[in-house]
Amino acid sequence: MSESKNRPDSSRRAFLTTAAVAASVAVIGLRPRTAKAAMPHLSEADPLAKSLGYKANAGQVDKAKFPTYKPGEHCSLCRFFQGKAGEASGFAGCQIFAGYDVDAGGWCASFNARG
Ligand code: SF4
Q1: Are residues 51 and 105 located together in one domain of the fold?
Q2: Which of 39, 61, 80 to mutate to test the pocket of ligand 1 (most atoms within 8 A of CB)?
Q3: Which of 11, 31, 35, 104 has the greatest count of CB atoms below 10 A from its CB?
Q4: Which residue numbers in the chain have pLDDT < 70?
Q5: Is any ligand 1 atom within 6 A of the Cβ of residue 49?
């Protein structure tokens, strides 16, 4: 086979791969954020939670160990929180801790302010 015959095939394959990835990202991005049933509350003793300094009460964050914490930050102000933005209490999912609900008033080192 000549190279000229292979090129259209590989660019078609690349296009289809890109289209499939884009479609997957679009489906994930459109998933409803609040329609999920309640999940178990994340434990502060969970290994990932511990490594990220998760506290159900942001006021109890170890500020010496996690100096990025700023007073006033808490889960419901984080872009990964799947509940209502800014709510003071309650639990909802978190994109970092799949399968668990986190406290709206909690915090971990993955905090990223909602835009
Ligand atoms: S990533 Fe955000 S919502 Fe999830 S536990 Fe950490 S601070 Fe809370």
Answers
A1: yes
A2: 80
A3: 104
A4: 1-36
A5: no
